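Example 3.2
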Amino acid sequence: MPEYKGVTIKVTTQEGVELDEYGVKSMTRRNFCSAYVQSETDVSFKISLTPDISFFEEGCHESPESRPRRITRPSRYRHRHRNRSPSPSGDDYMSESDEWDSRDYNHKSPVRRAPRFHLLATIHIDGRTKYERRVIIYLDPRHRNFSEPDGKVWLTSRWSRADDGTIMMHKWVFKDVGIESMFDKLLLSGDVKEEEANKEDEDAIINAMNSLGTKEDGDEEEAKVGVIRIILRRIKVGYEYDDRDFNPSYREDEGADVDMADANKVTHTMGLDKGYSIGRKSVQVITYTSFDEPDYATFKFFYRSKGMF
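Structure, written as tokens:
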């Protein structure tokens, strides 16, 4: 369960059982964290994202110079300002004897306050151009959309639009690529000589593991299939409205949109179950504005069968 920059992300079964993890690594200079998770054929999975509210309340995401603290002025100062008007920000926790001083931060007593942003999580699987789902991680427990009790949110399925306009929900499932299929692709690509095709299955899997191309620094040249990628961005939420004509980015008859060139390096790819219709429902849409900055963090889970670890 990688925890990075105040957010813990887990890949679990639909029943909530955490998948075994291996080789958790992070690179601060790239805002990048990765791990291997164990996948099993025909097991459906979902993803949980849990913020550490205390991390964000204490301002660990900001530089010390930008973090204000509450200080108390002498009584003579309080007397002069006793009848001042309320703060424009409406902060009801500020008394008349308190003011914010951004120049003098007490590192021993971090300020606990709501962050000025939330996080938008976008999930891509197997290198698809389109994202699977998006969800907002609310960091302010006072926000009406905050997920009680700890802010945890779930990504459970892909939404798509059927020909009749109804919305379908499909759970993600690990699908078996197959050892035979893997060797066929290796032979066709010339990566394995014909006389090597009779090696033990275990040796073959190890060879495939060694050619994964999964780099620690999060380079774009790494394998795309067999990868769950979650991108976090800082945002400010705007207004909300009900969209009666919500149109998911995927259609029921849409192609796979997956580059299978790396399928010889993995044992599973992502598939979908048959799904079910939720009808023509109105969907709540939340507008937001992204910060003009690099991604807050990227998590990558390389899912592989137990035999490859």
